[in-house]
Amino acid sequence: MRSDQRKELETVTRLRAGDRIAFNILFNRHTPSMIRVANTIVSSRAVAEDITQDTWLAVLKSIDGFEGRSSLAGWIFTILINKARTRARRDGRTVSFDEGGEDNNLDAAFDGHGRWKDKPELWDEITPERIVAGRNLAAHMSAAINELPPAQRAVIVLRVQEGLDPKEVCAALEITDSNLRVLLHRARLSLRDRIRTLTS
Amino acid sequence: MMSCKEVADRASAVIDGELSGWEMVQMRLHLAMCRGCRHFLGQIRAVDQLASSVTELPPEALREEALSKLRADKK
Q: What is the phi/psi pair of residue B58, to 5°?
């Protein structure tokens, strides 16, 4: 068993025993991402917070039934997304992550032979702590993620911020593997553009 | 040989370890000779690092409400 699997099993055991510290650690780690993902499905942040709270309640009530067939985070986000979908349907909202938003391709950056017109620069001073336009780059990144189209936002949070396995992300969002790849690539290109604009 | 555009289109696949063996060989050949593409890949990696570095505090009321609902349900 890998060390991360051992840690996760320990967390599950502690949650089952009603360990408040274990819950707090898990809550602090995942809640901001949960609100972000729920907000890609429901109409407002307030509703997303309600869904997140209901999800934690469901997690604590049903932790005995967690079988470890997915990661703990994958299980939590699947509960969240199902709850958000149910709420969205109830509110008459259509939910689909197939639509990737605008294609942020780089065609304009290349000449007719597929070579860079202007070669990308080395980002040797891009750190989360660097202050640009009054706040650090991590804060700019947070804002930029919030401005991504919903499907791109969901995949960047689940794959990059939460580190979920691609299969777990595809299952939770009901998208294909190739759709996930396209969404993730578009999201990264959009975020790169944002950082480049800020720092150039 | 891969063009810069083909390298850029595959940047996420490189980072996510999804290139086939032959594509990876072509990619390495190109990267060995092209500073612009090395920088571009570095930029995409930096995007992931910045995204991972985002830390936010959860709403405290949300935690307390979830726990108090749980206590109420158990009664």
A: -75, 155
Query: What is the residue whose two structure tokens read 């967690």?
Result: A66
Query: CATH fold of A106-199, please?
Result: Arc Repressor Mutant, subunit A (1.10.10)
What is the pTM (predicted TM-score) of this model?
A: 0.92
Domain A3-90 in CATH 1.10.1740.10: yes
Look at the alpha carbons of B9, A190, A192, A151 in this order and tell me if their dihedral is positive or negative. Answer: negative
Structure tokens at A59: 């997690």
B36-71 pLDDT per residue, tens: 999 999 999 999 999 999 988 999 899 888 888 888
B16/A106 CB distance under 8 A: no
Does B39 contact A at CB distance below 8 Å? Answer: yes
Per the CB < 8 Å rule, is B48 touching A107? no
Place of tokens 């109830």: A90
CA angle A190, A73, A148 (to 5 degrees): 15
Cβ-in-10-Å burial (0-12, 13-18, 19+) of A145 comes to buried
